[in-house]
Amino acid sequence: MALPVGVQYLLLGAGIAGLLYAMFGKRVKKRAAIGAVSAIVGVFGLVMLLPGWGVNLGDFFTAAPAEEGDQGGVASGVAIPIKTLNVLVEEKNSGSFSAADGTLKIYRSGTNPSDANANPLDSVTVTNGNGTSTSGVIKTNTKYRVVLDGSTTYYDVDLGEIEFVGSNYDKDQGQYLLELVDSNAAIIVPTISDAFDETTAANFNGQTTANLSGTSGNVVGNMGTISADGTWYWNETAGTTAYIEITPAFTGANAEVKEAVLCFDWDDSNPPEGNEFSDMTASLRTGTNYQLPSDILDYFNKEACIPLVGAKAGDSGTYRISMTITAANFDTADDFTIKVDDLGKVDGKDVLLGTKATKDTITFGGSYT
Prior knowledge:
Layout: H1 5-24, H2 29-49, H3 71-75, E1 84-89, E2 102-108, E3 122-126, E4 130-133, E5 143-149, E6 157-163, E7 169-170, E8 175-180, E9 191-192, E10 218-220, E11 231-235, E12 241-246, E13 250-251, E14 261-266, E15 277-287, H4 297-301, E16 305-307, E17 317-325, E18 335-341, E19 360-368
Parallel strand pairs: 1-8, 10-11, 11-19
Antiparallel strand pairs: 1-4, 2-3, 2-5, 5-6, 7-8, 9-13, 12-17, 14-16, 14-18, 15-17, 18-19
Helix pairs in contact: 1-2
């Protein structure tokens, strides 16, 4: 441990004085003895001073600063421009490091990337899992908000607030390798399959015929002109109970689905009032159990979404939606849809405000007489 600076200087002075006295003083025994003692004290002082040089005697000795790009600079908290920022992105489920595409966006700390006016400090184009920036804008030991924009192929990856420090920094080359792996790997957006085949008569109350021609859509009880993705109508002569069978399903190699939902969405121009049904239930028929509640009337009345719990690519589950209709309240202006979508709601947006999977829509056009 180094001695206090004041003591160091006293010892240094005494040592120098003692050495000079011993060397050049008059040769008498008394003075020679004093000189010898002074010399010993001086040598001791110099030895004690050695560990402190460059630290306490800062006026005479200074520690050499860390060179730019030095790991020492990173460790001491110095913000050093990164000459080359390399990005490596893993594709989840396939484990490939040569497949994912996207754009890594780096924002100032505290920026909300979901703000439409947010502008990144630097962007790195990722192709086949790799990307590089040589802008030199990003620095070590500085916090940034970082997000991978997956466009429409991958979900966005939000890394949150991070600093570019640690063993991934090459102090000699001034390079940093940012790895998006494991929980930060890019997830492929799935395809949402057609949940309802309007051309299959059995999907409407288990019917086997379609014998009411010339209508503008499909009619429960007596179905009209059948068309794929056409509008579903209720024929008042068919009674006050009806059901349809729908099959939410997701496909895509190595894909996953984030926050899959089944949603009721009312028409903007001719919305229901919320009193058209006295009862609405869901029951699993075959396939994947998405854990839909049996009573779903409140979801319709509140124009809400039902989570498809645990949904993933490859899943397919058929549910029967049974309805008890209040005829006096259900008319041709009560238009709504049932939609299967991702990201928690109809047209749900990811971190950077982009929608991902293309939703599937089943259209209801009120009553028909």
